[in-house]
Structures are given as structure tokens and as C-alpha cells.
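RETRY 2/3 - previous attempt timed out on the joint model. Re-submitting the same 500-residue input unchanged.
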Amino acid sequence: MDVSAIMIKSAVVIAYAFIGTFIGLLFLGVGRKIVARVHNRVGPPFYQGFIDVAKLLSKKTNISHGWIFDLALLFSISGILLAFAFLPVGGIKLLSTDGDAFLVLYLLAIPALGFALGAGASGNPNAGIGVMRALVMMLSYELPFVITMIALMIYYDTTSIARIVELQSVNGISSWAIFIPPFMLAAAVADMALQGMLMEQPFDIPVAPHEIASGPMVEFGGKYLGTLMLYKAISIVVETTLFVDFFLGGGVIMHGGIVANIANFIVWFVLIFIVFTLSLLINTAFPRFRIEQAFTFYWKYEAILATVALIWVYWMVI
Amino acid sequence: MRYEEWSGIARKASKRSLWMVHFCTGCGAIEMPPVMTSRYDMERFGIASMATPRQADVLLITGYLTVKTLKRVVQVYEQMQSPKYVIALGSCTMNGGMYWDSYNTIKRLDKYIPVDIYVAGCMPRPEGIMNAFLKLMKLIDEGKARGWERYKKYYERYKKNQEMAFNFVKKEEKEEEKNEGD
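RETRY 2/3 succeeded.
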């Protein structure tokens, strides 16, 4: 590839990062509105996420706790943006290569570790407890999620997310993975894993505002909290996109041409919104698990269901 | 764009996104649940309750303060990131209210930390609290809610008042110890 092609590609990736952040901030506001409507309240306006970030970034004093505290946030936000660039969005592939299903899994661990570094540097005991819980949660939800991913890889005989999306869009909606019987089970498992990834109730154990004073975020204020909110916004988009790419065909309904691209993008947007809304509705209906209950839930029941789906898929393929 | 225009935008954002940490002293805390939940729903205006002072913009003092609590309130206030605002509820924070002759409560909160808005009443109704928030939004928009700048400017004076209140308690404790010793 010559220099100009690389330049164009990186410009497109940066544009995508901005679009992802925009959608994420929109989702933060709309999500608060949805939760408010479930509570029979009016709720904030849908653009509340943008106002909050603007306010936090325009704070006059910002207290830092050393250079690790400063850099850890950049670490998180760049990790999640890189993961976003590797995911096919509405059938548009940016950096997709072979084996990127594994790569994305590793990239999704980077932000959590960055988050842990920053919270650890603040030296607050609540942050320490929150980080410990966040890492245990990561360990918990990744096992069932990885098993469902392996089931997908066996069925489609590939380790590339882009290829999985492509194979799911050959016959339109009817060839989505979620309409194949074993993957209905796998999608249910992955959706609960997604609930843990998004840190919504009943799995908001790491942040638990009334229990450990918002956990890892306890010492973040001003610009730092604003950056953290941007990270949260993008992570919503990345995690829901991961689910949509694996089970809902990445929102691809048409092939070829600009019109198809736009249509696919809109379908992708609607699908991630539906997945996010589902997770919010679960969030409003349940109280919080304790950490060992969440761990048992994922490693016992979820892992068993995921393994059943895996064996079923293996039997189908043979 | 000039600096004034930017700060105008910042004020516009700041007024629609007031995150508060409510310091539940006295009886005012019981008036907050109706303000937060579906009856009055202050999240309409972007007001949310935050877990720690680092994340918050508004400090809500909900009732009388003993001298020992004042120490913690000052710590919480100093941990908040400016621009920061203080709303004081109830007559106890203005002139001591029904605790006007108590030996261990402070009478005027304004002497120790800068208060932007007082809400009168014993206790104020939720409507009054909502009204105070709306008034605070208006003041922020006009750039008149400058309590945090006042605290910076007259820091020595505020510190002196705080020290006087704290030392008063220390002296009393010492006397008590002496009496017990006798």
C-alpha cells in the first residue's frame, strides 16, 4: 500500500472513531431517558450525554494523582477505539483481518487494565475494591462469551469477524446466526455476558454507586471523568456491535453500492439500539448481584448452557 | 471565538448538567427522595446525584450542622472541582433555626463556606428545592453564581472563621477532660 492509501485509511478510521463516540454519547442520553420512562419519570433530554461531557471538559480545576493516572485514561480510550476499528460496522470493514475475533477479545482487555491502573494510582480504597471486582467480573463473563465465540467459529469455519458477517448475509435476514437453533441458546448466553460487559444491573458490581461510591471512578473528576465518559460511550457501541456482528449478521441486508452501505449502516444502528435497550430493560428490572453470585452465575449456569450450544453445533457440523 | 463566548457555552452546559452530592445532615434529607423520584423528577433538568465530591458540582447542605460535621463539610467542599456551588436548605443553615441557642451547632453557614442559594423553611417543601435549582441555573447562566471564586479570594478569612469554630470545640473537650480528671 502506498502512502496516500494509508493516509486515506487512517482518516476514515479517525472519522469512524468520531462517529462511534457520537453514537455512544447519544445512547447515554437516550438510555437515561428510557430508564426514566420505565420509572414513570420524564427523564433528561436525549442530548444529555453531550451536555455532561461538555460540562466535565470545561471544568476549571482538575486534580491529578500522578502521571499513571493521566496516561491510564488515554490507554483505555485508545484501546477501545482500536477495538472499534477492528469491528465490521454495517458490513463496512476497516482493519478487519484473519483471526481478528481473538484480537478483539485481547483489545477489549486493554481498556479494563488501563482503567485498573488509573484507579490504582488514585490510591483510594474504594477504587481498589472496585478494580478487584471489575477484574473478577471480566474473568467471569469472558468464559461463556468465549465458548459461544468458539461455537460460531466452528460453525462458520473461520476466525475472522468480517467473514462471519459475510456468511450470515448470503440469504438476507433468514441466514442470521440467531435463527439457527443452537445459536438461539448461544445468543441468550452471550446477551447475559454482554450485560456484564456493559456493567448494567444485575452486574454493575464494579461501579455500585451506593455501595463503594462508584468504585474505580471514585477519584475521577473534571476532565478525567469527562474522558472516562467518552470511553464509556464508545464501549457501549463496541460491545453491542460485537453482539450484532456475531448473531445478527452485523446489520447487513443489502450488497453493493452506496445505497446498500447506507441501508446497512442504518440497520446496524437500529440493531445495536435494540440490543442496548434490551440490556437497559434488564437493568431496570433487577437489583444487584454480589460478586460471588455473579461469578457462580457465569461459570456454572452460563458456561453449562454455552457448552451445550457448543456440543450441539459440533454435532451439526459433523 | 473569543474567550467570553466559550465561557458562555461552558456556562450553558454547566447549568443543564448539575451533579450534586447531598450532605445529609439534619432533617432535610427526607425531602430529597420526592425531588429525585417520579413526583418531581429533577433529572428533567439534568440534575443527578453523584457518589463522591470529586464528580459533583453542587453541594447540598440539608439542615443544621454541628461543628464536628462542619469539619467534614469543609473537607467535602474543598475536594470538589470548581466551578462549584452550594445550596443550603432550611432555616438552620441561615441563623441556627430552632437550634439558635445550641452550644454545638453553627449558626450561619455563610461564615464558613460560600453559599450561593439559601432555601427558607423548616423544612422547605420539594417545590422550594426545585425552585432553588432553577434559580441556581439562572444565576449560572448570568455568571452570578461566584461562590467558589469568593472562597478563593477570601480564603484566609474563611479559614480563620473555621479555625475559630474548631478551636472552640477543642477547648471544650479539654475542659471536659480536665473536669473528668478532677
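Residues 3-317 of chain A form one domain. Closing ticket.
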